[in-house]
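Job type: complex structure
Entries:
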Amino acid sequence: MSEFTDLPVLKAPPMSAALSAALESVKPVSLRRPKRDLILFSLLSLPFFAAIVLIIGLRRDISGLSPLWLGTVGLVWFTSFSAAAYLGFVPAKGHIAPRSRSIYQVVLASSAVVIAIGLLAVQEVPGASMTYPSTMDNLVSHAGACARMGLGIGIFPGVLAILIMRRYVPVGRISVGLSLGAAGGSLGGLALMLHCPISESLHVGIVHGSCIVISAFFVAAAGQILLRERS
Amino acid sequence: MVAALMTADLAMLMKSYCEGDRQAFGVLYERTAPQLLRYLIRLSGDRATAEDLLQLSFLKVHKARGSYIEGAKPLPWMYTIAHRTFLDEARKRKRARVVDVGGDIPEESATILGGRAVDSATPPDTEKLNETMAALQSLPPSQRQAVVLTKLDGKSMQEAADIAGTTIGAMKVRAHRGYAALRKTLKQSKELGT
């Protein structure tokens, strides 16, 4: 191996014509300020979420649910939103590229946690909550409305976040999209938790819980287009 | 002004360049292009390809300069862009493993370990060098990147992990496996040669 470390030293080659031409018109650009972008995103997406919840209304059994359960599950969804949004906007200190590995871990972990909570810790208020036998047919027949609503609510903040960031991201586009989509999906899932009175575990776990992953994939796909090089 | 640029660190140069200072880009290019070119030669195994990739990488840096964050270290980001450019182009050209390096080794001679140009009295053994280059190309891309960064470019595990977007632990494993595979390949080729 020693001979390989004794490779000849290299000089910087001359800049190509394309690079020189690009530099002819170099203009000042505003630098990215990740924390400002994160605050802007929060200031736009959280009022949007609150307005949507007001419009679609709270679940009819909400007064009968345990405040501790409501607070804990709500906090889980909100933590998922905060962590995903933070990682999507703010790289590690001193770095520019996103923390892809942490993003994948957070998206997977938060999805797993909300799905597990839905499957294992659903609360029911007799006479007020809607429930039915846990069968695949019932799961499919009740999934449509919640899936559309959760995805609709989730994608909007995700795409909004991409638009706030709207710069050319040469590395880490997929992880940024996944992260910001997961943030939006968390708000979608939280909205469903506050609106949907169904307390059947498969519905809550799979339909509500999958908001994070589905929204993450949609926004990652949008990010591939919106964050790519613009000619 | 130029003297100040010559002594400025890379983060300062990047900031000045983002503020529209073309000279700052020139200095940044002079300071970083040799390291990136060396990295790309080791990844692609071909000087001409590496020079093309270098220019593409700097074009990407130029177009993405708005995503720079004040105070951040530009070099790991530039390495990541160069690596991504290499992978994209390798896929496009469907020839990720280029082994023909004959005649592409520059004539200037010096050691590059540690990243600074130092004169060397003995020129490298081109045959051995080409064998090693070929062996390097036989490694999976992640192991090749780990070996190039940690064993050949002299980057710390932390720096290499930052560039590759992975953890220090994973980088250690990749570097160890890559280095072991490289030694095995070189040993086999030596045995076949004797």
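Summary: Chain A has one domain: 31-226. Chain A touches chain B through 42 residues (CB under 8 Å).
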